[in-house]
Amino acid sequence: MKRDDQPMESGYQRLARRGVSRRDFLKLCTFTCAALGIDLSLAPQIAEAAEANLSKKPVIWMQGQGCTGCSESLLSSVDPGPEEIILDLLSVRYHPTLMAASGEQAVQSLEDCIAQGHYILVLEGSIPTADSRYCFVEGKPFIEQFKLAAEKAEAVIAVGSCACYGGIPRAGFTGAAGAQEVLEGVKVVNLPSCPVKPDRLVGLLLYYLSHNALPKLDGLNRPEAYYRYTLHDSCYRRWHYEKGEYLEDWNNPDTLDWCLYHKGCKGQDTYTNCANAWWNGGANFCGYAGSPCAGCSQPEYYDGFAPLFVNPKEVK
Ligand code: SF4
To answer: Any idea where the NADH:ubiquinone oxidoreductase-like 20kDa subunit domain is (predicted)?
Structure first.
């Protein structure tokens, strides 16, 4: 345990203690610059500025109607682990799934952080609007607690499709809404996909901490750099699409890399950089793994795109 007379660790010292080298962190900042279209020569400056703010910025992470998949996605990511950046170096004061405190201690932590202000508010999961009884947090209707927390937040970030647009819960009866729909006068940054893509969250946070401003957003409040083009624009199956070669039979090994449009692919309507920046440290993404795009970064997901894996010609 740290004593009061011990010097404060720098952000880099804390990174090193967590097994993330300075080189790894610089690599992450360079990757962020590339993804956000920033001059790569600025990576060291971004690293310095972000590092200076990393250990200071409090974060409140609220979970509404969801499956906790976005937190899980974050915890499972690799090289260097965004979980070290976000969950250790930022001062995460409240996270219902991960915090050690519970009960009154957890409530106190949330209330203290809100009272002090100047924090980043992250929302995971959707917000029920049909009836406040569908989701409670620390004894209060979720929507009330979320609006209260948003009032004093420096920035509000919605992670995952549920938090951005209602996602899968929107297909149900709870009136599930995204963060921007329930907040007036507060700009929400949306990072849709199911689950959130961790490197986008890390990139957004590094940009915010180093610039004290948000990156350029598109008309749906998404960082333009991550959502500028459709999956179809950069899909490696595209040349088969152009030749009219569509996968019809999963059991035919000769056509496995053909276009998945007849299997319900929503890549033509879905803005995402998945085909360029793969998931799980570059291990894979849906299309390369053989799954048609489900359109999870679009507001239409899930209900508006269902049924998902069906030839559009067969959808009535
Ligand atoms: Fe476009 Fe989907 Fe076909 Fe790829 S698989 S070319 S994204 S329709």
So the answer is: 67-207
